Amino acid sequence: MSFYNTYQKYKEFDFEDFLEKVTEEDVLRAISKDRINEYDFLALLSAKAEKHLEAMAVKARQLTLQHFGKVIFLFTPMYLANYCVNQCAYCSFNITNKISRKKLNLEEVEEEARIISSTGLRHILILTGESRKETPVSYIKECVEVLKKYFRSISIEVYPLETEEYAELVASGVDGITLFQEVYSEETYEAVHLGGPKRNHRFRLDAPERACIASMRSVGIGALLGLDDWRREAFFTGLHADYLQNQYNDTEISVSLPRIRPHVGSFQPKCDVSDKNLVQVMLAIRLFMPRTGITISTRERPDFRDNLIGLGVTKMSAGVSTEVGGHASDEKTEGQFDISDNRDVETMKNIIYGKGYQPVFKDWQMI
Amino acid sequence: MGDQLIIGGKQINSRLFIGTGKFPNNRLIPEVIKKSGAQVVTVALRRIDFDSEDENMLNYIPKDCILMPNTSGARNAEEAVRIARLARAAGCGNWIKIEVVSDNKYLLPDNFETIKATEILVKEGFVVLPYMSPDLMAAKRLRDVGAAAVMPLGAPIGTNKGLRTRDLVKILVDEIDLPIVVDAGLGKPSEAAEAMEIGAAAVLVNTAIATAGDPVMMGEAFGQAVEAGRKAFVSGAGAVKEYAEASSPLTGFLK
Fold first, then answer.
1. Cβ–Cβ below 8 Å for A245 and B104
2. I need a surface site. Which of B81, B156, B181, B203 has the fewest CB within 10 A?
């Protein structure tokens, strides 16, 4: 089994024709249904649905409250290293970019962990670039051993691994992965991934499924919005999430909605994704997958993020640095991308309370 | 000796049990407990932050409550057992609500794994209250392996749809000689009252209270509804009649 089969099924689908012919009635029907199918989902992503964002928001809010309550889960990323052998046009860590490269040693990992956990955070997402030489699975495991003392849940956002490697990490205490496909369109994928093992679209596409097979507790996916037509990319993201949730019932599948941000390099995104577009994607995903977690990162502006609370988002990062050693070290490196929301954990916590929601720092522990 | 509910050797004063996972602020919890009169409070071990003063949910649960940790997040019996042991080791007492969900799409409980976990934990001295899909055979097995109560869902969790499983729950009430606690799905006080009227020993409510505009007042409303429903059950409601009783009955000629 592979999501690639589903991808292929829709690859030749005439999106333009569908999106052109879909009616406002179709949109309203989709909003009123208990459970929607993929065509309803696509209708909600259409330009015709833009007029009905408020009705979608009301439904999304109700579904989110029902399944998650008035809570927002908090986490922060920790960059372990920025060595990378890939050439992703949109990323600062691109091997051809002349940036200073760094990898945290275990003492430095511990220092970062100490500082981050003192802010109250209990869930950590650790990141590396793709370099099996500098940051092999064995290094990630060593870091996990250190981090276990400070955090109750450890997730990874690293290069795609083999099933056995995911299983190894699960056994060592990792309970979640985040792995963005970046772009589902194979053509665009090839165009923006100019070199390195990441050029293998299919190996990356199947990685979340391998993590599910390895019994990873939570698996997050996403497309980097802006690389290609956002309606299609959002559609494939939803289909991918739905596919995984149906195949692997006991895994918590979640979706991130990252928009491309300024970075080192000259790449310009192909498509604009406005605030309104991003909200539409989030609402459509919520109506399609009522129980799925939705993450909004600090790529987004503070005021915009605050307004998304209550609409469908369930998980937010806080106190973020995208630099290696960004919490403890004075020696600065280039971040993976520029963040828009620099607010610390305490500030985010108060903002969330102010919105009538509870910031939740701990939602899992190693068992 | 009046109408007492005793579970695991403890006398329970309120037949409203509450969950704690969805409140906008944990500071509301003591207030909800006070106004609703609830005494049994369930908390997911996954949410308890033992290392934090502010965020540790346990700090908001009054000492005279009965803490019932739950195994939310368990995907199978083995994980439920591990979570239960961790909860007891962390000082959360020996009550445990078993929650085994292997289906994230609908969040329906896995009765088979639940029975396995219950059997193991009862032997280890826990007071086990399993959350389950209302199935008579599964409930019998839970009883046989030593569950202290059986907690069938009223509707899928979080849906606020009410007592959709009414007929199945009624069968459990009639057939299982254990307290039947309707857990999950109740959205309104009237639905809690309905569960009590058909003989449930108690109900457990989280979403409907936690996500209400005024959770404290909603908690109070549920407390009152549960009490009213119980009184109605104990007092023996009059029979429901399909037709009005005619003043000239059809069988009036029979002497």
1. yes
2. B156
